[in-house]
Amino acid sequence: MNTDNPTIESTSDCFVSVRFRDEINPDINNKVHTLFNLLKEISHFGITGLIPSYNSILIQYNPSELSNEHLIKIIEQQLSKLESELTKQTVIDIPVLYGDIYGEDLEFVAEHNNLTTDQVIEIHSTPKYLVYMLGFTPGFPYLGGMEESISTPRLTTPRTLIPAGSVGIADKQTGIYPSESPGGWQLIGKTPLILFNHEKNPPSLITPGDLIRFVPLKSIDEYETIFNLVKTNKFKPNKSTNNEN
Q: pTM higher than 0.85, yes or no?
């Protein structure tokens, strides 16, 4: 199959899957989230859930309110608009204090890759990372785009508790822990931002399809200043539109 002709498949009596090419690809993922937004805008009462992933979207519906045949027609109508409606991606700046107690594995990551800690920080904070999906824990972003030059194996023995906001590396991936949890990623820094708050709408600071950029902080004082502003809802992360779209 190709990205212009995704497969529409009924997976049960209340789920339909739309699957694009079977690979992890930024362009395909953008089409997934564009279709997600188009279907979300329809707000058809029979569509009860939309679950996007790397290269597909699972659509839950109520068969007593919406027939399978009608749903497929709706999907096909939205797919016909896809190319002209491709989502303009939002770039969100994520401030990070690297190293020391906030990133205790930074030196190991540097040594493992024959780099200095400053080189690791520069390499890690240069790309725009695509948020392919959220999962594992609420608000945990699966990011694509990390340079292999800082790839580092997971910890042999996972930590029992990793603080919320911790930024880590595991093999060829990087990510941010939105809440306290066990984990085996190499910790290289920490953000003062709150990624997930169930009392807010939407609860997640970042959403699938966004791009994030890590911005190094220069001092603990800078970290604490942002942290205190976040606690009082006086800090808004910098957001922009990706000019490469």
A: no
